[in-house]
Amino acid sequence: MCLKTFVLFVTLYSLTYSARADSQDWWKHATFYQIYPRSFEDSDNDGIGDLQGIINKIDHFPASGVDAVWLSPIFESPQVDQGYDISNYTKVDPAYGTNEILNTLIEEAHSRGVKVVLDFVPNHTSDKHQWFIDSVNGVEEYRDYYVWANAKVDEDGNRVPPNNWISVFKNSAWTWSDERQQYYLHEFASAQPDLNYRNPVVVEAMKNILRFWLDKGVDGFRIDAVPYLFENEDLLDEPLSNLPGYNSTDYEYLDHIYTQNLPETLDMIYQWRQVVDDFVTENGGDARVLMTEAYADINTTMLYFGTADGTRLGAHFSFNFNLITDLNINSTAQDVVDSVNKWLEAIPDIYTSNWVLGNHDNHRVATRLGPDNVDGFNMLKSLLPGVAVTYNGEEIGQENGEVSYEEGQDPSARDPDIFDAVSRDFERTPYQWDDSVNAGFNTGAKPWLPVSEKYHETNLKIEIATAGSSHYKVYQDLAKLRSNEVLLSGDVAIKAVTEDVVLLKRRYENDSVVLLFNKGEEAVDVDVSEDVSARNGILIKSINSTKELGAPVLPANVTLAAHEALVITDKSA
Ligand code: GLC
Ligand code: MG
């Protein structure tokens, strides 16, 4: 071992690693890994990923340093919106397996120290849910389970919807029911009728679904589409947004003051938190967690955590989508810094930050921010304080897949004119395990979405087997580093050193961990002596870096190659 390497090892081993987090706090520094079950692993070779497939790959999670997995919906569903249209909330869809197989999955995960979080889709059911069928038919108990309203009549005497509300998936949010002679509300597809949260029976029925799965041993819920739970009771027309480029069929055409983020909606999240907290009080064990999905402005996002004074708690964390919504391939280092700081400045001290780079609704980070920037952004996400969320495939740098309109499945994009721009199929193609047929997703049946041709170069097996570095090895090294005291409790500061270079510094007493990330196309020399001392060493480097691990950088003059990213430890006196 050369001297420089030796110095680094001394540095590392003298850093404090803390003991296992308290059982109520386990989630605060956890890495959550989103599994998109349909595309993960297809054990019975029918083209659709399944729970047994996840079990077969269960060792991938501890090997990747993941603390918890969350599964996109696996419940009985006509699959109009890939399982986000549920017809039975307490039954696993036969395409994915059975409740028993889910039990096994939970046990297998738990025995490896991995928690399991389910997707809870409370805003709407499938139109094939028995509740909706009974509601359409006017069965007394279910009459008010959904949001029904009488038609209006226009000047020409035609029947028209009760107001101007638009669906997230385009066109009126109302669909006429001949049987019931009324319109029903659907903020998403017409096959996804909105539940009526002003009906206390519905509220209790949905709480009972949470309790049902808590009893089965799940560790929490990702709560889908929360902003849409309640709507204005008087069904008032929404004002125009006046955003350029939209017409009256587009969701963006209106300003959603009467259908999103109502005070009653926040209150419902706080009630659900009470349900999981009560469960822990009564049954013991580690915290069961809630994470909420709300694409909202920063102040509204914070309200989903609870009130600023903590007197009422909501989600353990409300997803921070800013690294998705603020950034694109042309973003500067300053844009990255602004996005991070916007979050850090807004979050009350009592709450825990989280960082998300991708999910099944947004283009993969490798595609959105550039395949050569994958390591840099994975480093950024892992080194920032709080929770890190990984979408399956990010750990290997998987890019969007290639999907034609004919192959597309996303109900929000069934129109050739908008397919390329809005389809979410691209980020949902099968996981790339190895270089065998269908990337190891199955043994040859046609997958529900095509496997990306890129799997020959980008797959888990190659990235594990390589003698050199790989996105996956970088990801594993980052996962290990996350239990370091500097990352658990160190201060955080981030700045742009040049137009393309981001510097993130975590500091705890005399120890620092610093990220230097050149996200640009050009090599650049930077002087980081303000933030990095001579007693530093490179701990993790992006796969395109030719620097020597363990060696120090010369703080006054570091040459960073295009897209190079370095995690440096620094022990300044
Ligand atoms: C959430 C899901 C998305 C789904 C929508 C309607 O945004 O992430 O995939 O289409 O809710 O359920
Ligand atoms: Mg299958």
Task: Note down, in words, how this protein is organized.
- With 573 residues, this protein is an alpha/beta fold.
- The chain has a domain of 350 residues: TIM Barrel, CATH 3.20.20.80.
- The chain contains 16 helices and 22 strands.
- Strands 13-12-11-5-2-1-15-14 form an eight-stranded parallel β-sheet. It has a five-stranded antiparallel β-sheet with strand order 16-17-18-22-20.
- Helix 6 packs parallel to helix 7 and helix 12 packs parallel to helix 15.
- The radius of gyration is 24 Å and the shape is globular.
- The N terminus is likely disordered.
- The site of magnesium ion has 5 residues, from loops.
- Belongs to the glycosyl hydrolase 13 family.
- GO terms for molecular function: alpha-1,4-glucosidase activity.
- InterPro entries: GH, GH13_cat_dom, O16G_dom_2.
- It is an enzyme of class 3 (hydrolase).
- Keywords: Glycoprotein, Glycosidase, Hydrolase, Signal.
